[in-house]
Design goal:
heterodimer; A: 123 residues; Helix Hairpins; B: mainly alpha; 2 domains; 10 helices
Chain lengths: 123, 229
């Protein structure tokens, strides 16, 4: 029992990561509002940041900034990768929102069902 | 592409680590129950609660504010995970710029999401199946925060040693970002530049149209193309 609990606590980060991931997936599939869909997509993306940063952490180590007093540092490589991912993520997010604005101008709505109703080619 | 390469390297490392099963050190097990972990678990639980609120909230303004809170919580979690640079970026970009961009979009499109009679059963089923598969895949991963996990064994020590030896910036993330992986950052800049141009073109194309007719928009787009050529 204790071992199961300990195992659960040790993987708690991963479980929350997975929860955030499937929440994002759920919003993308289930919600019709395009802005909400994009927010779901960015939830999915942030869960990936967590997925990369969690294994990088070493308990009782320090942030990867060199100092004579410390000898163990957390892994800097996932941090670098996620920095890139965040910046690229916000760029694509802004592009998606600009597309939503264009869709609103062209169709008069940003609800997916109404757009499909207006556009027979999309079916 | 570089991300994919890193992932491949990690899987190889994990395979190597699994072959030499590391015996569990009792001292390491004691370390897992410290205050750092506890704080992080609370923050992660709050994060999950905010996510549920985002799913349930139908007012788009509320969703945007909740997304901003989510980003700040995520930045706090990153701080607890020792990823200080990432936390700063997430706080400024995720909670700052994203919120501003979202609010602008709400202003341009109108804000309320009204309830729609959409079936939730299939999305819920898909999400739960994916979640179950991911949990199953997670169980074999190394415990949280141990120093002898395969990810810390191969590339990372090299980066740390090199940036120390060659007197690179004391912040290793900066050293890796600007020195070791400068081309990666160049590619990132290209992506941001392209996205910026895309946003500009998209918004300019529709800026002057007031009606909702698609015909008008297409005419307008042609005009702008002609103007630029």
């Amino acid at each position: 029992m204790i071992e199961t609990l300990e195992n659960f606590a040790n993987h708690y980060n991963f479980f929350i990561t997975i929860f955030l991931m499937i929440s994002g997936l759920f919003i993308v599939i289930a919600r019709g509002n395009l802005i909400k869909k994009l927010i779901g997509l960015s939830l999915f993306q942030t869960s990936v940041y967590l997925l990369y940063l969690t294994p990088a952490k070493i308990l009782n180590a320090t942030a990867p900034i060199y100092d004579k007093q410390y000898s163990t540092y957390s892994n800097p490589l996932p941090h670098v990768l996620m920095l890139t991912a965040i910046v690229v993520g916000v760029a694509t997010f802004a592009l998606g929102l600009a597309l939503v604005v264009r869709i609103k101008e062209a169709y008069g709505t940003i609800e997916e069902d109404e757009i499909f109703a207006k556009d027979p080619e999309a079916e | 592409m570089i991300l994919a390469a890193a992932e491949r390297a990690q899987t190889a490392e994990q395979a190597a680590g699994a072959a030499a099963t590391v015996p569990k050190d009792p001292a390491m097990a004691a370390v897992t129950a410290n205050a750092e972990t506890f704080v992080m678990m609370i923050l992660l639980t709050l994060l999950a609660a905010i996510t549920l609120a985002i799913i349930r909230q139908r007012n788009m303004f509320g969703v945007v504010i909740l997304a901003s809170i989510y980003s700040f919580l995520m930045a706090s979690v990153m701080l607890a995970l020792d990823a200080v640079d990432v936390a700063m970026t997430e706080a400024s970009v995720g909670a700052g710029i994203s919120t501003v961009v979202l609010l602008t979009t709400l202003y341009l499109t109108g804000s309320v999401e009204y309830p729609r009679p959409r079936s939730v059963a299939i999305p819920l089923f898909v999400s739960l199946v994916v979640g179950a598969a991911l949990v199953w895949g997670t169980i074999g991963l190394p415990d949280f925060g141990i120093a002898d996990a395969p990810i810390h064994k191969h590339v990372a020590p090299t980066y740390i040693e090199y940036s120390k030896k060659h007197e690179m910036p004391p912040n290793m993330v900066t050293a890796v970002l600007a020195d070791f992986r400068g081309f990666d950052t160049l590619g990132e800049t290209t992506v941001v530049f392209t996205a910026g141009i895309g946003v500009l073109l998209l918004l300019q194309g529709g800026w002057r149209t007031s009606g909702n007719s698609r015909r008008d928009d297409e005419d307008n787009e042609l005009d702008i193309d002609g103007g630029e050529a």
